[in-house]
């Protein structure tokens, strides 16, 4: 029953991301049709990340208070509404507002992570979080392919098809999502920490603060690559839209495989923190060599980037979950907020850096990954000191 319940959570998150992925390839063209420029494309994409930054800790903390199932269902309902609004948007302002609604419901990731932790044994926590990441990643990989296949329906038709997928996902979740309470659901509402408490806890704890900071800086590095690789690939390798689509599909598949199959096994053997540090090192190494590699080495470098991000993202979430306690959802929401802030700021900074020198976003990203590794090691030393104080024995 536990395994079946986890599969339902994974499926719900996969379909949720699938719905967004379906409209992703057509969204920039719709913005142009409505009279928008490249700045509007950036604004619409950034609006989602900023709204997610604000709301992820709130939804996570609310799931601690009221239960995972109702909050995940509410997020899925919000996704269906936002996709329908995108389809009917006939102005740039309406389109921007629809993406804000989608971002406000983007806390489904943090709630889903907490749900998976609740349904997992402690020794299988990292594997469960890895499968959450893999489910989300595959939704982004498959969704754009479906969107491209449905392009003949027009933007409104594709958006409404995506909204229909999201609605079916909501109805399936209402029937299939387990009602069994997790450990945090049994805590009376008045005793469950809120979002502001989770944020303060994350900032105050010396074992947790460096992990959240590492999530932010490493995601800045990865988002910078996502934002500028199309330009770099076109200049260095002559890649067009089709070639770039295949590249990013490959990156998504590698990440999903690492998150769903490799990260958990590696964490079982070496521990979450060591695997997270290794992930930061792989991500940094891949970014450092991308700007000057010949074409035949560019793809292995991208595989390093994808594998590093997959390892780091999964094990960092597990480290945050380990410190969650009763505020598990809120803590995971803080981690998602840090990633969302990076996705909002990273591409902007990367674009400016790319204009100065094409390789600069990648060199800076590699440096940020080095900083992430240092932060993770620092959190390990803080954890060892805390364990020594609590038990009187060295960690």
TrEMBL record:
MF terms in GO: transmembrane transporter activity
Record-level GO cellular component terms: plasma membrane
Alphabetical keyword list: Membrane, Transmembrane, Transmembrane helix, Transport
Top-level division of the source organism's lineage: Bacteria
Residues of the Major facilitator superfamily (MFS) profile domain: 5-384
Signal peptide extent: none
PROSITE patterns in the cross-refs: MFS (PS50850), SUGAR_TRANSPORT_1 (PS00216)
Record's protein name: Tetracycline resistance MFS efflux pump
